[in-house]
Structure formats: structure tokens, C-alpha cells
Design brief:
By secondary structure, the chain is an all-alpha fold. The chain has a single domain (about 5-95), classed as Up-down Bundle (Chorismate Mutase Domain, subunit A). Helices cover about 80% and strands about 0% of the residues. It contains three helices and no strands. The longest helix has about 30 residues, at about 10-40.
């Protein structure tokens, strides 16, 4: 289903729920890699890598643009997600190196 085919708000919500069932498992998988990165980093200061953050955001924006999406929305989402994962990775670093 594509968005313009939805005839009601209920149909839109069903479609969004279906997408979330696909997105959330991918975020869980991403979190597993973030946790592993935290375990592998030798210094807590390495958890935040500004150059890597900008690279990831730029790549996500490019993917959005190539799919007809709004790169500003994707940038905002990715920056929020990265901030949450930094908090998660810092806790993982503390747990695994403490």
C-alpha cells in the first residue's frame, strides 16, 4: 500500500503500524551493533565521534533524497536516534569496562 491509496485515517494508521513492525526490529538490531561498538572502544571518550555522526547523517539524508523523502525530517530523526544511542552506548561502555 502507498500513502495516497489510503482512503481513511484508519487505513493510514494500519499502514503506519505495519511499517513500525518492520522498523522496530531493525532498530533493535542496530542497538545490538551499538552495544558491541561500546564494548570494543578502548576509551569512553571514543563513544562520541562527531565525524562519524556527520557521516551517518549525511548518508541518511542522501538515502531520503534518493527515495523522494524529506531530508530535513530524516536528519532530525537520525540526530535524535544517534543521541539516544550515544546514551545507550555510554552505559554499555561503563557496564563492560567498569
Amino acid at each position: 500500500m502507498i500513502a495516497k491509496d489510503c482512503k481513511s485515517l484508519a487505513e493510514v494508521r494500519v499502514a503506519i503500524d505495519a511499517l513500525d513492525r518492520q522498523i522496530v526490529p531493525l532498530l533493535v538490531e542496530r542497538a545490538q551493533f551499538v552495544a558491541r561498538a561500546g564494548q570494543l572502544k578502548s576509551d569512553r571518550a571514543l563513544v562520541v565521534d562527531p565525524a562519524r555522526i556527520e557521516d551517518v547523517v549525511a548518508k541518511a539524508k542522501a538515502i531520503a533524497e534518493s527515495n523522494g523523502g524529506q531530508d530535513a525530517v530524516i536528519e532530525s530523526l537520525y540526530r535524535g536516534m544517534i543521541d539516544a544511542f550515544i546514551t545507550f552506548e555510554t552505559a554499555e561502555w561503563d557496564r563492560s569496562h567498569g
